[in-house]
Amino acid sequence: MKGNNPYLVVILIQAIYAAMFLLSKAAFDHGMNNFIFVFYRQAAATIFLIPFAFFFEWYAQHNLHQHILHGYGSNYPSSISFSQFNHAIFLF
Q1: How far is CA 59 from the centre of its chain?
Q2: Which tens digits make up the pLDDT trace of 51-89?
Q3: What contacts 69, CB < 8 A, 6 or more positions away?
Q4: Is the confidence at residue 4, as pLDDT, over 60?
Q5: Do residues 80 and 71 lie in contact, with contact meaning Cβ atoms separated by under 8 Å?
């Protein structure tokens, strides 16, 4: 089944494109304005993607903080900030 995953993803993407085409065709046939349709489509995509964005960004930040706090042998942010200050000066 693992070898078929790319094919299943392609089929899923094609099904989503077909559904988007049918939805847009029906909306435009009933007289919806192009700009209103784009607004609704972007709003729906935003509402759909916000939970994923919050989860993945929180997970990335959590892992980064864990790496910083425990990777350098100190549990105090002030000592970590002071030790990283020399590295930051080089960037400026």
Answers
A1: 12
A2: 988 887 776 666 655 555 555 555 555 555 666 666 666
A3: 75, 77, 80
A4: yes
A5: no
Which residues have C-beta within 8 Å of that of residue 83, sequence separation ≥ 6? 72, 74
Token output for 26: 């029906």
pLDDT (tens digit per residue) in 16-43: 999 999 999 999 999 999 999 999 999 9
Q: What is the pTM of this model?
A: 0.52
The answer to whether the Cα torsion of 25, 29, 39, 53 is positive or negative is negative
DSSP class per residue in 52-77:
HHHHHHHHHHHHHHHHHHHHTT---H
Burial of 74 (0-12, 13-18, 19+ CB in 10 A): middle
